[in-house]
Amino acid sequence: MFTQLRKAARALRPATAAEREVAYLNEATDRIDLEYRQRAVDRGMFRNAGF
């Protein structure tokens, strides 16, 4: 029973910055796109609050 509750809780929690970064990098279509995306992540695309 608790296993099902843990799974539901994990499904409802927001993704962490690291998880969003990995998902963004995994969407790269080729090496050039991957390098571009890596530079964007290194610049703080997912970590800066903006304010």
UniProtKB/TrEMBL annotation:
InterPro entries the record matches: DUF3563
Domain of life: Bacteria
Name of the featured protein: DUF3563 domain-containing protein
Biological source species: Pleomorphomonas diazotrophica
